[in-house]
Design brief:
- The protein is built from six helices and 14 strands.
- Strand 12 and strand 13 form a beta hairpin.
- The longest helix has 16 residues.
- The mean pLDDT is 94.
- The chain binds cytidine-5'-triphosphate and calcium ion.
- Cytidine-5'-triphosphate binds next to helix 4 and strand 9.
Length: 228
């Protein structure tokens, strides 16, 4: 296996993957999050490792067990802000960044240090926007290859292409999470992959492991020949 990895299509490449759903604290016992299971991101981390890459997996809330391969560096984070900090601190030595995580778009403006007690009949939570991690890195992109995900519930192609351009990505993986066999929590996914010129790959329902391999093969082809 070692020898295979040494000549794998991603050998010598540093791949950073984000996975899971970020947790935005309201107080010590309550939070805002989303339905991301982390399965897609963990599958990408395993596949990248199998293809020879040096892998860092930045994981927010997930039910996935830590990867068995000790060569995959696992970094646990909670909030969008902590994910941003971890990604930025590793950005300069990254060849490929794959943002499979579902990052909260808004977080509570105030996070209480002590459990909030109930009082009136209604309660208003003020939310503020989080930093868009991909968008901010897309602006300072050097040689890094950036891959985003777009989980949509309709018009996936339109929204995915818009995100690809807006965030200056090299590839975007679009899926319609309202389709059976796609999206959060499932072991399979149905994805279409786009670049700035349009559709690159339309995959039938496939395991997340297979989607990960196909995606990384595309990335490897596209960065090959580029030395840094
Ligand atoms: N993303 C990010 N930082 C954020 C929000 C999203 O890096 N604060 C990344 C996600 O990890 C994903 C991509 O951007 O790879 C698209 O996320 P998505 O939620 O689909 O896009 P948004 O731009 O947040 O748009 P919307 O939620 O309104 O569809
Ligand atoms: Ca979002």
């Amino acid at each position: 296996i070692q020898a295979d990895r040494a000549k794998g299509p991603l050998s010598g490449k540093k791949v950073m993957v984000t996975a899971g759903g970020t947790v935005e604290r309201i107080d010590p016992v309550r939070y805002i999050s989303n339905d991301s299971s982390g399965k897609m991101g963990f599958a990408i981390a395993r596949a990248a490792r199998a293809m020879g890459a040096e892998v860092t997996l930045i994981a927010a809330r997930t039910d996935e067990a830590p990867p068995q391969d000790p060569e995959i560096t696992l970094v646990r984070v909670e909030s969008a802000q902590s994910m941003l900090d971890e990604v930025v601190s590793r950005w300069n030595s990254c060849d490929i960044l794959i943002k499979a995580a579902a990052v909260a778009d808004y977080r509570p403006k105030h996070s209480a240090d002590a459990k909030i007690k109930k009082s009136g009949d209604t309660m208003t939570l003020e939310l503020v926007k989080t930093t868009d991690i991909l968008e901010s890195l897309g602006k300072v992109k050097d040689n890094q290859f950036l891959i985003g995900f777009a989980a949509e519930t309709g018009n996936a192609e339109y929204y995915a292409k818009d995100k690809l351009v807006r965030k200056n990505l090299d590839l975007i993986v679009a899926n319609d999470v309202s389709r059976e066999g796609a999206g959060f929590g499932t072991d399979t996914n149905i994805v279409s992959i786009y670049d700035a010129d349009g559709l690159v790959l339309d995959l039938p329902i496939s395991s997340k492991d297979e989607v990960a391999r196909r995606l990384l093969t595309l990335a490897a082809e596209r960065i090959s020949g580029v030395t840094r």
